[in-house]
C-alpha cells in the first residue's frame, strides 16, 4: 500500500544524504511542507520551513502537524571528540528528534543507522547504533523504517580520511558491504516513505541500492 507524505520533518538537511533528500522532497509536488531545522540557512523555497539554531534548543520550538519524519543525523568519533559526545549526537539527539516528531503527529519515522548495528557489539560505533535501534523500537512507532547503509559515497563538505581511503575498496565489495552513494540512499528513503506498512522494517544496504536506482 502506498501513501503520499505531505508534511515532513527532515533532521540533518545539511549532511551528505540530507542534502540530496531535501532536494528530492522540495521537488516532489505532493509535499506541502518540509520542516528542516539547521544551524546555517538553507536556500529559500516556498515549501521550506527552516528554523535556525542548535537542534537540541530548536526541537521544543518546532510546530505544525507532521505525517513523516526523516533523521539523517550522524557524526564520527573524530568529529565528536569523545565517545560521550558521539553518543550525544548519534543516540540521544536522534531519539529527541523522534520524540518531537511523534509529538507533532508523525506516524512514520525513517532513520539512517549503519551496517553492522548491534546493541551487543564489542565495537563502540556499532553498539551505539544498535542501542539506538532498540530505543526507537521501544517508542512503539506505528511505522519505523531503519536504513543500514554501508560506507556512504559522495563529496562531503568536510574531509574524512578513513572514508576517503576506504571508498575505492568499498565500491567493489560484495552484497550489502558495497558502498552506497548518498544520492542513491536519499532516493531509497523517499521510496520507503511512500510505502505504508505497520511495524518495524530494517533495510540493509544491498536492498537500499536496489530501491534507490
UniProtKB/TrEMBL annotation:
Entries under InterPro entries matching the protein: NAD(P)-bd_dom_sf
Signal peptide limits: none
Superkingdom assignment: Bacteria
Protein name: Oxidoreductase
